[in-house]
Amino acid sequence: MIKIACVGDNVVDINYIDGIINPGGNCVNAAVYCSQLGHQSAYVGVMADDGYADIVMDSLRKNHVDVSQCVIKHGETGRCTCRLIDGERILGDENDGGLVKSDPLVFTPELIRYLKDFDIVHTSCYSYFDDELGKLKAAGIPVIYDFSTVWTEEKVKKISQSADYILFSGRDELSAVENLNMMRDAVDQFGCCLAVMTMGTKGAWVYDGHKVYKKEPYNAEGGAVDTTGCGDSWISGFITTYIDYKKKVDHMLANAQGNFITEKNRLDAMAHIIESAMCMGNLRARYTCRIKGAYGFGIPISDYKEK
Q1: What's the helix, strand, coil split of the chain in %, to 5?
Q2: N or C, which end of the chain has less CB nearby within 10 Å?
Q3: What is the reported pTM?
Q4: DSSP assignment of 73-133, as one string?
């Protein structure tokens, strides 16, 4: 088991087709998935004082996620929408990310002290506090940063100064080689420890500076109830497994006397850890695609009441 803090965005996904309001957001989803995998999970973010935030907070508490460090402010929760227009499912954004974007989280000394007790912090490009990440780096707190598809070479170079691990979603307009080169550059050129790229039904890649690992998705032909959150669940399964086993290896190396293992031995062990972690990512993502909403816990739109 590891301790992971997911810090950043929160939204509600309002599905006007099904008539359901689901809690979500990259960091909220990851916090729930990590807790469901048996890890000690926390969510930290700016929460609005509206009824939608209550839906998100209630779902986090029901999934045993620590929300003690959330900051409550006056404003609106981000609202993502799904509507049926002329027979087409149209995704939208009702309020430009809400309070998370208009008044993003600030890393106070108190929050830094809290986060230092975790094995890793997960955050994303939708959290809007990139300039704050240097505080985590200075405090020695490992960070995994999710770019989704919103990445450029300039952005990756900047974030790599603070993040140890970077997650990309592959971009369809780019070739496989172009996507892969960006992942390689994050490690070889910009100094990240590990880069991950998910490609939906095309699978996932991981690069550690030595080798590119590829994993096809499990049972992609088996269909999906809803693919919302599948990428978030893949990285949750991967990074918790990877960090959990890496901690054990690091502990043994730090406490070994004499010529315990060689560097070749260590690299072999880490290679198998990456492969096992990718398997767990696949399993968690496959589980998620059988759930309506990112992780369920939605309420009917008819039951929603403004505060």
Answers
A1: 40, 25, 35
A2: C
A3: 0.94
A4: ESS-BEEEEEEEETTEEEEEESSTTBHHHHS-----HHHHHHHTTSSEEEEEGGG--GGGH
Report the relative pairing of strands 78-85 and 11-15 from DSSP bridges.
parallel
DSSP 3-state of 152: coil
